[in-house]
Amino acid sequence: VYSPIADIKEYPEGVDIVLVEGAIANEEHLELIHKIRTRTKTIISFGDCAVTGNVTALRNLSGGAEPALQLAYIQAADINQQIPNSPGIVPPLLDTVVPVHKVVSVDIYLPGCPPSAPRIRAALEPLLKGEKPEIVGREMIKFG
Predict the structure, then answer these.
(1) How far apart, in whole angstroms, are the C-alpha atoms of residue 18 and residue 36?
(2) What are the chain's domains?
């Protein structure tokens, strides 16, 4: 499991399976997902945001990165109306939030918000045995 807050800061080489959660919304995400694809055998797009963009992609309705920042930090702010511009505060946003498969190839899609424990098990157990999981039927492909 890659967790830059609780663990390592650099995504390792030679990863067998990764669950990618969330949409691609900023330049850091874009850089990391390319690194993940080159260093990982099997990418699982994990959850509705990774599979479709879902709630995160609602930002696309604002018309791009700059209008989204204006809306969030200027128009909706009660006090201190300013867009953070110090490095590391808000990573540079992409103009469009996209699901993972729009940026890199995805091997398995696991929808759900979040995916249920039985669904996760049904996807991971075969992979751990060197087999390909069957993601079919309502319980495996239902969103939400």
Answers:
(1) 8
(2) 15-61+94-141 (3.40.50.700)
Residue with tokens 């959660």: 21
Give the bridge partners for 21, in sequence order: 46
DSSP codes of every residue in 42-101: EEEEESHHHHH-GGGGGGGGGTSHHHHHHIIIIIS-SSS-----STTTSPPEEEEEE-GG
Note the pTM of the prediction, 2 decimals: 0.87
pLDDT at 10 over 80: yes
**18-68: per-residue pLDDT in tens?**
999 999 999 999 999 999 999 999 999 999 999 999 999 999 999 999 999
3-state class of 126 per DSSP? helix
